[in-house]
Write a structure and sequence with these properties.
The complex is a heterodimer of chains A (287) and B (317).
Chain A lengths: L20 E2 L3 E2 L9 H9 L1 H5 L5 E8 L7 E7 L11 E11 L2 E12 L2 E3 L10 E3 L2 E6 L2 E5 L4 E3 L3 E2 L2 H8 L4 H8 L6 E7 L7 E7 L10 E9 L2 E10 L3 E8 L2 E8 L2 E7 L4 E8 L6
Parallel strand pairs in A: 1-3
Antiparallel strand pairs in A: 2-7, 3-4, 4-5, 5-6, 7-8, 8-9, 9-10, 11-17, 12-13, 13-14, 14-15, 15-16, 17-18, 18-19, 19-20
Chain B lengths: L2 H38 L5 H14 L8 E2 L2 E2 L2 H11 L1 H10 L2 E2 L6 H12 L5 H4 L21 H4 L4 E2 L5 H23 L5 H8 L6 H4 L1 H10 L10 H10 L3 H13 L54 H5 L1
Parallel strand pairs in B: 3-4
Antiparallel strand pairs in B: 1-2
Helix pairs in contact in B: 1-5, 2-3, 3-4, 3-5
The chains are: A mainly beta (287), B mainly alpha (317).
Chain lengths: 287, 317
Amino acid sequence: MISFNRMIAAIGMFSGVVAAGSAHAAPVVFDDNPETAQARIVRSLFPGYISERPGMVLESSVLDLDLDDTGEIIARFVHSGSCSRDMKTCRTVVLKHFYRGTTGNWKIIFDRATSAIEFGAPQRRLPAPITADGITWTYTYPNYKPTSSDLGMPINLERVPPQSVRGIAGAFGEGALKLAETGSDRVSYEYGAVKTEDGNRLLIIKQTGDMACGDLIGCPVRVIREANGKWATVLEAATVSDVLQATAMRKGLPDLVTNTPNGFVVFGWAGEQYGIVDRVEAVEVRK
Amino acid sequence: MTTFGKTAGLRAALVAAGLMASVSWAAASELNVAMFNNKTGLSTDTSAIQETWSALQQMGTDQFLGGVIGNFKLDESSMIAGALSLGVTEFDNFLRSGSVSSALGGNVLDNLTETMTGGAGINFSDLTGSFTSGGGQVASVTGSTAPTTFSSVSGGAQSDGACDPEIASALVANANDYVNQMTSAAQSDDVGFSQMESTSGGGQSNGFAGLGCLDKLFQNAGSDILFKPPSLSSLTSMLQTWSCDKAEGVAQQVAGAFGGGIDTSSLGGFFPAETMGEAFDGIGRGINFSGGPSNPFGFLSIGGPSGRATTLTDVFQ
């Protein structure tokens, strides 16, 4: 448990810092008093969102997540328009005050619907990691980003033999096939097998090379499945790093996880194709 | 100064001039790359730009050069920006299909729009070998001049990719049944077109009765014409031999679509470098989907080197 050292008085609604509690690896204790300093700050940042949901209960708390004696605000919007049907999973945000000279403003560094949120211990003045519904979020300026490492194991990929490239390039489209037919080495391929319970083979194929991967999406990935003697593409995606095989199984096939520039996507088997189960990504911090 | 001295001096001057030119050229390229990086948010260099353009040429993606998405005209620098953003093969897929996989996320097309519009208009002719005047804003197909993104002008911005094939097959079967039912109703002895033709004496030249003979023509071509139209060569052959005055008019329209003088025996090579599926017996693709009132969701206009472009609607009008 990290003890709290000093209290800092609020200076103003928009540029002030808020009295802070300590960061600790425990569930956050929320206060639903609408007149606290942190509640007024949250209402000033979300005026339209709150006004469109009359009767909303705003729960808030203050924690010094990075031990800089400036509190971060954690807020939870409790309303039928902000929560799941059972009202257990509600939109939750974390606000951090960024200084600019002598002034500054509050920015949203975490924004996701959660049913449970906990904060770990801060390290080297970095905001404490968050655990929200089993997913770990770590802070790298300017926001919290989710990590997928807990969701499964990276699928081991090997280079596709040159003589087999033409056979699989077609799964990536007409352009990829043309490149392969010219023997170009601008785009190369890796592949890995996935164990399934339905007896049909499942292969992950990933493009590699400077020309293959893009800044916005990472490297293209295709998942192909053999059924009744034929191969078919069952997922078109991309990843900035690994493709993970998750422990969860649906209809005999495991969930797959790809990494995006801002988080990750979980795909589940839908019977004939893989579909998106969840997309977990960092909030965009506006300048 | 001796002649030798003069020649040596001239040679040195020429070398120096060449050096200065190459330095100047390199500086201009670096400057353009710096501008490109600043406007797109990418981090690239002259080598990567050359390699990327070369890859696009190898795939044939450069056929889209000069094409239009909404009000945005593709040029070399914007296409390079797109390729660096998505990867060369995914960018090629995007231009060919007009969409990206939904697995890539809803913001991809918005971000791609920003990158490509920012990167447009930069002269990389020294690296690519050509310069096309392009750029502009991606305006909505409704005619509004408000800037928008590729996701709103591409029609289906997100391809699903997850449709259950069994459901798809059932939908197609239902569609076929409906068409067959409509065809049967049109041909029924009580209320169909054949009844109208028989009561008219078979001689009317206008209205539904006049088209009765064409209806029979397409019956022979296969009742599933809506899904698998006959090849152009077989269709025009039938038109020329069918004893039906309306068929002659249609044959003239089809011939007119190709500038007259159609030779049915050589149709297989009419557009040798382009394919358009069964309608052209497996010859090349030169599809022009230019936006307009008749095709508001037209995605791309291909202004290739030959200028060839035609539409399927010209054939089946």
